[in-house]
Amino acid sequence: MNDLEPADPVVTNPRRRVVIIGAGFGGLACAGALGDTDVDVIVIDRRNHNLFQPLLYQVATAALSPADIAEPIRRTLGRYRNVHIMLAEAGGIDVETKQVKLKDGGTVFYDQLVIATGSDYNYFGHDEWQHFAPGLKTLHEARRIRHRLLLSFEKAERTKDPAERKALLTSIVVGGGPTGVEMAGAISELGRSMAHRDFRSIPASDLRVILVEAGPRILAAFPEHLQAYAVRHLEKMGVEVRLGAQVSDITAEGAVIAGHMVPAGSVVWGAGVKASPAFRWLGIEGKASGRIPVDAKLRVEGFKDIFSLGDTSFQPDKNGAPLPALAQVAKQQGRYLGKLLAKPGAIETAKPFHFANRGNTAVIGRNAAIFDFGRWTLKGYFAWILWAIVHVYLLVNFEKRMLVTVQWIWRYLTRQRGARLIDENDKEDVAPAIIR
Ligand SMILES: Cc1cc2nc3c(=O)[nH]c(=O)nc-3n(C[C@H](O)[C@H](O)[C@H](O)COP(=O)(O)OP(=O)(O)OC[C@H]3O[C@@H](n4cnc5c(N)ncnc54)[C@H](O)[C@@H]3O)c2cc1C
After folding, report:
1. What is the CATH number of the domain that holds 102?
2. What local confidence, expressed as pLDDT, does residue 428 receive?
3. For this UniProt entry, which segments traverse the membrane (predicted)?
4. 105 in the Ramachandran plot: left (φ > 0), alpha (ψ -120 to 50) or beta?
5. Positions marked catalytic
6. Span 50-98, pLDDT tens digits
7. Given the CA of residue 89, which atom of ligand 1 is nearest to it?
């Protein structure tokens, strides 16, 4: 089966065709820059929505609902008549015949191909941990974490066994990067607000959130004084920060930290990232956990018509290290490449891609965030306000910005979290064995 039969409007029009695999930050920016140009664009994504991953932790901790941070791709790109959207999962590329092979058996021809398939969590050879310790990459995972947290509280409210209650009220977050820090802070805030107001048999002293980092510091990409501030603030919020501690096993009962089993109601994974497996489709060696090496114009080394950007690509900075896996990198690369691909031959004469760093940030909790702008840094309340403004601004459209702003203001004033829903059907999926 060919997905683009002659009757297809794309095929009857013999214009140059750019196929983009992945409509995340990078793919969407690329498609947007190609919108309303003389090129036919086909965007393939296995999800029908674009996800604002930086706020996924708020869905996982019941501060926002899934729809607040996800937008149908058709809604974002539908206004461009030259852009066609395909809900399908790519599973390979035939570089000889210039076709993307879809997992459902279909194929899509391209003249130029952009691979923007992002990254996945890396369980370092222990994929079985994924079941007990979801990462934070998709709405499904965020909902699993939310259910598990909320169910643990419900069970803790009912149990008469103090040891079981303590275990249920323990949350372990593995990995001290921005996601781990954000999750640990948010779980602590969620737990304390619920214990204080909504539950009758949960003493706040039984709540325990452990942030485990195998390295010597959390937030490794930030300057040391911001790392130290983050540790201090997390500890003030009741989070135990365990540095230099390895997690060697994760089960339904909890995690083994530095050789000791710590029973826990929920474990969240935020420890490692690997690129999507797209490098295998090209039969090349991936660099730094599977990223596709690209040149200064985002062209995959050795392939004239194939480009890659965002988390799944490896573009070296001036020191040879890969550009960071950040939304701002993917978006800038997407816009850059889209503009180049819009004009025939522009690639050859174009200036190389230059990443303009707009600053690196992480939020720690209510009233506390950090910003690193390279030459100067910011921490505390004003960093938190700036963090909120930036994240609202980066949301995909005005409606989402309004929705999130209103909810954040309401939550700030009332300390209430509105999205604390446990779906009956999800119980089986998420309840760890400890929840009997
Ligand atoms: C929890 C979390 C918090 C983050 N916080 C921040 C932050 O605060 N600031 C920041 O700058 N960055 C942050 N990031 C990183 C940022 O989200 C990524 O750098 C960014 O999403 C990369 O964009 P991308 O386009 O490369 O990939 P993605 O945005 O991940 O998009 C990849 C797309 O490809 C699709 N796809 C994958 N494989 C296939 C396939 N085989 N077939 C079809 N479609 C496919 C996916 O469905 C997805 O839509 C965060 C990431 C996470 C997970």
Report:
1. 3.50.50.60
2. 47
3. 381-398
4. left
5. 182
6. 999 999 999 999 889 999 999 999 999 999 999 999 999 999 999 999 9
7. 42
